[in-house]
Q: What sequence folds into this?
């Protein structure tokens, strides 16, 4: 990361869609050479978002890099992705924002990320604010918690 520059929180909704604004930021920041160490497009929340929207990830990336406002990109998403009801979007966003580790492997990855955050802060894990969701772990890591 460069000088504390982070993409938007996954909690910021764009058209009611969690993580979409963050995805846009990640594409822009990555191509500007400012974030190379983030999961990107084919994994994690990025992949979950692409799958939900049923978009071609490369096409969305190219659209973002072509420029425009968040609203213009959102219009493109609506024009090129699967049509979703407001209820579908709300349910999907809620599921993403409230998800935590669900199996032993995920819990190990989660604890590893917590150790990384503690190390970055020069703190003991026990002194970090308690978090239980992947989104809150991102918030903690990016110093919004």
A:
């Amino acid at each position: 990361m460069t000088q504390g520059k982070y993409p938007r929180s996954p909690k910021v909704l764009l058209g009611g869609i969690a993580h979409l604004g963050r995805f846009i930021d990640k594409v822009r920041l990555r191509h500007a050479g400012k974030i190379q160490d983030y999961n990107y497009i084919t994994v994690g929340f990025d992949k979950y978002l692409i799958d939900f929207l049923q978009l071609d990830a490369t096409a969305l990336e190219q659209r973002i890099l072509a420029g425009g406002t968040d609203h213009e990109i959102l219009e493109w998403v609506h024009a090129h992705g699967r049509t979703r009801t407001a209820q579908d979007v709300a349910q999907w966003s809620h599921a993403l924002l409230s998800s935590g580790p669900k199996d032993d492997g995920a819990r190990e990855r989660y604890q590893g990320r917590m150790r990384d955050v503690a190390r970055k802060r020069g703190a003991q894990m026990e002194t970090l604010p308690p978090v239980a969701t992947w989104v809150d772990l991102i918030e903690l890591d990016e110093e919004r918690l």
Notes: The two ends are 18 Å apart (CA to CA). The chain has a mean pLDDT of 90.
